[in-house]
Specification:
56% of the residues lie in helices and 11% in strands.
């Protein structure tokens, strides 16, 4: 007969996972749950000051039995382990989907146990597991938003918890346990969603241990924000004892972006980390009426923390001091919602370690970050998938799955703004039979009305998206929410805000904003910075500011009301002038444009050189396209075609031609509507010119013929000359040199008749090129020499390069490769740094023919290098290899 080992006294902890065997959990889910359970237990015991390695742990499949050595004070277990275990479970759940998340029941007891060869046994262990199965404990967890419910035996409560204020005994509720043969009282608490103190004959509550639970209800259907939740959770380590500090997170963003929803959702997740309570106040910083003063908020907090109202000082400084004293030594989570500025927040910050403060505001609260070390968290619109998750949470995944494209459209037309998505979801929920596509179409139509009205007399504009999103409730009306931000702007920032409603976007620089408003760049910079601080705009790249579409819609409404038709048109003209004249001033391209005079208040950007201009045009590509569209819509036809012509001159060869064809067609339609033959002529000429470059030669010639017809109707001799020049250039691209010579000859006569010396020089250079190709070498030299001898003020380096190119070709054909190479080098030096498309076209040809001359001179490596460079340019620009450069390279290759 085996002798039973002597009994030993141990603290007994039983843990069970709620719904571990749920049929929706797969084996991988259960493994993830078990792994999370043991990681959470290890972390909770360690942080509570208990050596996890010295504890006896026996696995129970869906839970565990833990025996704590008798020398470990039981108050460590009762005070620290529940709070830390709830927090560890919450952290585990943040990174898991629903089926792998854990919610736990925990039982605490103590008594004599025996060890035998099978493990441990004893009546006390049986009692602990009866408690774990108690129905009141299961019901408490089921009704809790938290992750943990704890039950303590009557003995454990009476001997440990009741005598330790740090265990907050007033937050425990007496329950009756009836499981199998066990019939006894026990005590239950919810560490991460505690019970409010209630009167009890055995344990009267006292003000000193009042535990406020002020968090508002979490927002239904919260979705996304995983990165932001993770960032907030990362701050908990700084606030964790011992030695924790007061941590402040300042969550900033525009109206309706979900700042409060994020703060409250996260606060509920981590409430268990703050056993001394959670405080919440809406500071009404951006609400109608007066904001809450710090003195008022502190008074409310003091009452919640147990201070008798009669003892709260009237003096503000004394009140703040009492508040900090009451918080000393406590771990409290404080949510300061809708703050106006840092001054409103500072008096509400605790003075001692262990607390964490989350502040939400439309202002960036930069002063709070600078002086108090607040961690800024800028909240932007939801990404596409997150927007779909929000809709699914409110409408059900089945409804979204039935109309995925419509759901994506709703997210896009709402700009990913959670409030807007919630409003549309509410509309859809109110009418289950209404297709999501109908709602998306309603928003799309409203967005189209906004775009059509931009920059025009929009007093009678069709309703925009803000009208579709209107709820009639000030708390959920985006127009109302934005109005509260707008009213708090300084006069200069308010003016800039309304004018940004005129600008089509997608973004704007400080210089462009200065011209738009007719103010200095310093004034514009200050106004934009204020708008960014108020979350009405964002500096998404250094020096470039962007507005959310729905905010721009509100700004446009303010423009209608405050500056009217005349102000809108004047601002539109200044904006268009800024972009057009910046390109004119930085370019030496002197085509025969009649440029509109600069409006007062416009200061174009002064770019250093053509390379700087190219960089500027690339950076402003989408803005310039929108400016052209706005000019079309608002009837600024001359601005429209000149913006189109200038922008395409520099970018038409760089993969943007699809954009330009669309813009060009819009300009043509507008010009036809008003019968502007000059605008039609230049727009057809530019479209035809780049059609030729992209290989659509027939289409290019058709456009040049249309351009010529319009210029003739307008009596524009110089315009006719350029139409002939562009037609000639198109012919050269495919080797039609005789036709090109005819076109250049006609251009020369027209330029001379019009007195256009710049165009005349181009025609001379073109004739030199054509006759060189046709073998008319004397004529070629004559025309090229005339081009080179002309007054330098009447041409540009590209013209000279064409003339040198013609001379080089003549020398190459007459057997002088050395002289040809010298001429080509002269031409290359002139155009190598040029950035417009015509110069790049010539550079491709120069490199190809310089390679031919080097081959004729016996320098095959130099030839291959030139051809390779030419081919690389063609590939970079996406042009067809009509010159046969690739064939030259392959023939010269040793393996060719």
């Amino acid at each position: 007969m085996n002798t039973l080992a002597p009994a030993v006294h141990r603290t007994i902890v039983g843990v069970d996972v709620e719904g571990f065997g749920d049929r929706h959990r797969t084996h991988p889910d259960q493994i993830a749950v078990r792994d999370g359970l043991y990681q959470a237990l290890d972390r909770a015991f360690t942080r509570a000051g208990i050596d996890w390695e010295r504890c006896y742990c026996e696995d129970r499949g869906d839970g565990a039995l833990i025996l704590v050595p008798s020398e470990v004070p039981k108050t460590l277990l009762a005070q620290g382990v529940p709070v830390e275990l709830a927090a560890a479970a919450a952290d585990h759940n943040l990174a898991r989907d629903q089926r792998a998340r854990i919610r736990l029941r925990l039982a605490m007891h103590a008594g004599e146990i025996h060890h035998d060869r099978h493990g441990v046994t004893g009546t006390a262990i049986n009692t602990a597991f009866r408690l774990l199965e108690a129905e009141p404990l299961k019901q408490a967890l089921a009704g809790s938003p938290g992750t943990l419910a704890v039950i303590a035996s009557r003995w454990f409560y009476e001997e440990v918890i009741r005598h330790a204020p740090a265990c907050t005994p007033c937050s425990w509720r007496r329950v009756r346990v009836s499981v199998k043969e066990t019939r006894e009282d026990a005590w239950v608490c919810l560490p991460d969603a505690p019970y409010l103190p209630e009167p009890d004959a055995d344990l009267p509550p006292s003000p000193e241990v009042a535990v406020p639970r002020q968090l508002p209800a979490a927002v239904a259907g919260f979705a996304g924000r995983a990165a932001e939740l993770e960032a907030l959770t990362g701050l908990l380590e700084e606030a964790a004892p011992p030695g924790g500090t007061v941590v402040i997170s300042a969550v900033a963003g525009m109206a309706g972006v979900g700042k409060t929803a994020l703060a409250v959702h996260w606060a509920w997740q981590v409430a268990g980390r703050f056993p001394d309570g959670q405080l919440y106040v809406n500071l009404r910083g951006y609400d109608p009426g007066a904001p809450v003063t710090p003195e008022e908020a502190v008074g409310w907090f003091l009452v919640a923390l147990g201070a008798p109202a009669a003892q709260i000082p009237a003096d503000a400084q004394a009140r703040y001091g009492l508040y900090r004293s009451v918080l000393a030594g406590r771990r409290v989570l404080i949510v300061l919602d809708n703050a106006r500025d840092a001054a409103q927040v500072r008096p509400l910050l605790p003075g001692s370690p262990g607390c964490l403060v989350v502040v939400t505001s439309r202002s960036a609260l930069a002063g709070l970050a600078a002086a108090e070390g607040a961690h800024p968290l800028r909240l932007g619109p939801l990404a596409g998938q997150e927007g779909a998750q929000l809709l699914a949470a409110r409408l059900g995944p089945e409804r979204l799955a039935a109309e995925p494209e419509a759901a994506a459209g709703l997210t896009a037309w709402c700009g990913g703004l959670p409030l807007a998505l919630a409003v549309m979801a509410a509309q859809a929920a109110a009418d289950p039979g209404l297709p999501l596509g109908a709602l998306a179409a309603r928003l799309a139509g409203a967005a189209g009305a906004e775009a059509a009205a931009a920059g025009q007399d929009i007093a009678g504009a069709a309703p925009g998206r803000l009208e579709v999103l209107e709820t009639g409730d000030p708390a959920t009306s985006l127009r109302q929410l934005l109005s509260w931000s707008y009213r708090q702007l300084s006069p200069s920032a308010a003016q800039m805000f309304t004018l940004l409603g005129v600008h089509r976007g997608p973004d704007i620089t400080v210089p462009a904003a200065a011209s738009l408003a007719g103010v200095s760049r310093a004034e514009a910079g200050r106004a934009l910075a204020e708008l960014a601080q108020a979350s009405l705009a964002a500096e998404h790249r250094p020096g470039r500011y962007v507005m959310h579409d729905l905010v721009r819609g509100y700004a446009a409404e303010q423009a209608r009301q405050t500056i009217g038709e005349a102000g809108i048109r004047a601002a539109t003209g200044r904006s268009l002038d800024h972009y057009l004249h910046t390109m004119i001033l930085a370019s030496d391209i002197a085509l025969a444009f009649t440029v509109t005079p600069l409006a007062p208040g416009v200061v174009p950007e002064m770019l250093a050189d053509e390379a700087g201009l190219l960089g500027w045009v690339q950076a402003e590509h989408q803005v310039l396209l929108q400016a052209t569209a706005q000019a079309v819509a608002a009837g600024f036809i001359t601005h429209a075609w000149q913006l189109f012509a200038r922008q395409s001159w520099f970018l038409g060869d760089q993969g943007y031609w699809t954009d330009f064809r669309t813009a060009g067609q819009a300009v043509l339609a507008a010009a036809r509507a008003v019968g502007d033959d000059v605008a039609l002529g230049w727009t057809h000429a530019i479209i035809g010119r780049y059609g030729s470059f992209s290989g659509a030669a027939d289409d290019g010639r058709a456009h040049q013929q249309l351009a010529l017809d319009h210029f003739r109707r307008a009596g524009d001799l110089a315009g006719q000359g350029w139409a002939h020049m562009f037609a000639g250039l198109a012919c050269t691209w495919k080797g039609g040199w005789a036709e090109a010579a005819t076109q250049c000859g006609q251009a020369l006569a027209l330029f001379r008749q019009a007195g256009d010396q710049y165009g005349e020089r181009w025609a001379l250079a073109g004739l030199g090129e054509c006759h060189a190709r046709l073998g008319n070498y004397d004529l070629a030299r004559s025309y090229a020499s005339q081009a080179l001898e002309a007054d330098p003020a009447t041409g540009d380096p590209t013209t000279l390069a064409f003339a040198w190119h013609a001379l080089g070709f003549v020398h190459a054909r007459l057997g002088g490769p050395g002289q040809a190479i010298s001429c080509y080098q002269q031409a290359l030096a002139l155009v190598r740094e040029r950035k417009h498309a015509l110069a790049r076209m010539l550079l491709v040809r120069l490199l190809a023919e310089s390679g031919d001359a080097s081959r004729a001179a016996g320098d095959l490596p130099a030839a291959a290098e030139a051809w390779q460079h030419s081919l690389q340019l063609l590939d970079d620009l996406g042009w067809p290899d009509l010159l046969g450069v690739r064939a030259r390279l392959e023939a010269a290759s040793p393996h060719g």
